Amino acid sequence: MSKLNSFISFFLVALFIGCTTEPPRDILTRTVVYEPTEKWMWLHGDKNASEEDLKARFTKLAQYGVTGVLIGGDHESMFRAAKAAGIEAHIWMWTLNRGDEYIMENHPEWYSENRLGVSCWDDPPYVGYYRWLCPTKVKVSDYLAEQVTALAEKEYIDGIHLDYVRYCDVILPRALWEKYGLVQDRELPQFDYCYCSTCRKKYEASHGTDPILLAEPSVDSSWIQFRYDQVTALVNRLSAICQERNKPISAAVFPTPSIAKQLVRQDWVNWKVDRLFPMVYHGFYNEPADWIETAVKEGVDALNGKCKLTAGVYMPDLSSDSTFNLALKKAKTGGSMGISIFGKMSERQFEILKAHE
């Protein structure tokens, strides 16, 4: 009977553990086993902040559980203040969308051209700051490689974060159509990049056709793949530079592999980076906050463990505490390693972030 009672006891314990909705537990110690949630933020550079102010800011972020920051620009004092507070600090750089004075004045030939032959050097699409470099041009790749090399060799910078590493939006996210007075149910030539002489010659050399002569460029798989490959080659070159210097490299990307390919020629599943930050900004796509889980899961499944994925959320679309809390939960259930936040937060939202596991 003692063996029977032991079996029944074991069965009941196993049944209880199998049915509980709580996190898995160590049966011997009864302690809950949690996977830590990484918490990142995109921060604009502030060259005028004092050391005391920066110390207070980053100490506060650390107290709220922030583990990493992506800082816009090479502001050494910000990096050192973040690191002193125990926060990982990566430099956030715009990659192919560049309106730098030096490039604008000295290298107008580096900029992308649309299917109508118009360069975004002097006629940017959508907004004035949309000035896209062509990733196919060797001199563009060399210039960006030099910049990343210099940044990766600075001891106070923990890693490199690439943003705008793509082509111009051939189709805008659905919620922005009305803002720009557009209906983009198909690819329009004025937003279709790049058809510069470098791209055309390189594509024709390998495929025997000038892409400007394609009858339906929007459905030509080889021309579409060509442009995916140009951005991928650039990213992987920059990644190799960082890896040689033992600095992690990451990128902000469009929310899912399928959306990224369709809207901005971005094939991020094949990038050799350490981490990706898909911007799962649900409001841009007229989706509810629940969609964050679906979007994250698509990316996680497509990557299949190639690199880390941390979901980026957009605070203007998460103004209510309940929606913000839901977004955090949906990112995690979708498989994200954590969360990255863009935009201002209230004190209450910082408390919600701190409590999130």
Mean pLDDT score = 91
Name the strands of the widest sheet in spatial order: 7-6-5-4-3-2-1-9-8
Strand content: 5-15%
Count of individual domains: 2
Quickly count the helices: 11
Walk me through what this model shows.
- It contains eleven helices and nine strands.
- It is α/β, with parallel strands linked by helices.
- Strands 7-6-5-4-3-2-1-9-8 form a nine-stranded parallel sheet.
- The longest helix is centred in the middle third of the chain and has 24 residues, at 221-244.
SSE order and pairing:
Blueprint: H1 2-19, E1 38-43, H2 51-63, E2 68-72, H3 76-84, E3 88-94, H4 101-106, H5 138-152, E4 159-163, H6 197-207, H7 221-244, E5 249-253, H8 257-264, E6 275-278, H9 291-303, E7 308-309, E8 311-314, H10 321-333, E9 338-342, H11 347-355
Parallel strand pairs: 1-2, 1-9, 2-3, 3-4, 4-5, 5-6, 6-7, 8-9
Helix pairs in contact: 2-3, 5-7, 9-10, 10-11
Relevant terms:
357 residues, alpha/beta, TIM Barrel, 2 domains, nine-stranded parallel beta sheet, 11 helices, 9 strands, 39% helix, globular, disordered N terminus
